[in-house]
Amino acid sequence: MSLASPHAAQESLTFRIGKNLFDMSEVAGGMAVLLVRVLWRIARANFDWNEFKTNMYKMGVKSTPIVVVTALFVGAIAVIQAAPMVQQYGAYGLLGWGAGFSVLRELGPLLTALMISGRVGANNTAELGTMVVTEQIDALRILAIDPLGFLIAPRLLAIVLTLVIANIYADALALFGAAIASKAMLGVEYGVFLNGLTSGLLNFGDVAHGLIKSAFFGLMMAIASCYFGLAVKGGAPGVGRAVNAGVVASATGIFILDYFVSFIIG
Amino acid sequence: MISFRNIHKSFGPKNVLQGVSFDVHDGEVFFIIGASGVGKSVLIKHLVGLLYPDQGEIWLDGQEISRFDELQMMAVRRKCAMVFQHSTLFDSMTCAQNVALPLRKHKNLKGRSAEHEAIKLLEKVHMEAFADRFPAELGDGMRKRVAIARALTLDPQYILFDEPTTSLDPVNARRVDKLIRELSDTLGVTSIVVSHDLVSIFGIADRIVMLYKGQVRLLGTREEFRNTTDGVVEQFTNGYAEGPMDL
Asked: Each residue of A22-40: pLDDT tens digit?
């Protein structure tokens, strides 16, 4: 039988809830401060250009295969889900519009961000965390090199640009995948699909909507992965915990931002 | 000249430094010795702003620096290089790129010319043949020598060495000792060496300070340490398992 009083148990629960809230506030505040400090360096062009180029290659170019494969299937999946309704109402002419609307505004930016978060965000946290535990960040400071300008600002810029660029070609590939699936599953001619896309129901605003979201998702992913990487404590297990926390924070933040950005820009 | 004055530092309930005071003179090879965990590395990290004292002052060339912010510390760090215990070379860069990095950032040297200068510095530590290797491909002693070359890039007046011979074989350890001595004799660099390697201490030190229980136990030359009658110092410098030291 437990000797702890019910009051003590209640206190303990209250304490734990309060502590979790404080911890979450600390993380949110830490990320906000880091974001402001990094953006200030980018605004003054006070970042390492070589690191930026290296990261663009590592994060952008090397993510291409995973984005290409995912995007092709995303478009096809959108058509599979829409197929029963399209067949029931014979709305074949709207298939291009339906696929375009969902891919450009939602599926393209969201799934591209989640795929890149798994690959780039996790890698970024692990790399920075390892640099912290092996004192490489301190070594930079000792060499009178600002770690935020040298390491973090180029990464943030590279992640945001990677997401925006990847979203552009992911949108195109997803629509290509959708067109192929439409033809294969429903016999919809490419011309009919293209007409649905370009008949005026979709416009540049829909593309811009997705690109704006991608930029916000990139900022979220970059700042979460860098923050948890720089906050690593406790050697290799600490790096593992940071990667886990970084991926969870990125994904959660992306969905929350998706809601608010969709709500605000319509 | 470097001056530590009444430095106190605690981590939680643990009082690591409890009023440490001593001066380091220009051009000397100065050793900080003491048992593991006594706060030797903690003390030198205060000098370059990796840690800040709870109480006390640190003077560097007539300037009180212990309350400097990160930006002000940049100037101190250009004067005061540090070689970490585990070398801390950047894994993603070759040896030449590691050494070239501070040259690119502070001396505005571009690509080829930065690497050319880096190789000249690697020659000083006899590591030019390994310029294109990555740190993971080198042994501890080699990495340490590359880290010393990197520390020399900004022509520092002071170099802090944190256990430079730990984990090295005796031959490589003596090579590193020789290098530290040469830096002082030929370039006039002031070296502060944290160590408990007795061969190094009695081989190259000009002066030594021993920390014990967070305070200075003895400050003096090699001869003064050899001739001391302090049981604690005697036990440490002779490496006796039994004695008055409270570990």
From this structure: 989 999 999 999 999 999 9
Is B118 contained in some domain? Answer: yes
Cβ distance of A136 and B106 shorter than 8 Å? no
Question: Is residue B184 classed as helix, strand or coil in its secondary structure?
Answer: helix
Interface probe for A, chosen from B90, B140, B143, B157 (most Cβ of A below 10 Å), is B90
The domain spans of chain A are 6-265
**Per-residue b or e along A51-73, where b marks 16 or more CB atoms closer than 10 Å to that residue's CB:** bbeebbebbbeebeebbeebbbb
Beta-carbon separation of B88 and A139 below 8 A: yes
B216 inside domain: yes
With respect to residue B227, please indicate whether it lies within any of the assigned structural domains.
yes
Total tally of structural domains belonging to chain B: 1
Q: Which residues of B touch A143 (CB under 8 A)?
A: 77, 81, 101-102, 105, 150, 153-154
Residue B106 with chain A: CB contacts under 8 Å:
144
pLDDT tens figures, A179-236:
999 999 888 899 998 988 888 788 888 999 999 999 999 999 999 999 999 999 988 8
Answer whether residue B217 is part of any domain. yes
Could you tell me the CATH number of the domain that includes residue B70? Answer: 3.40.50.300
Domain holding B82, by residue range, is 2-238
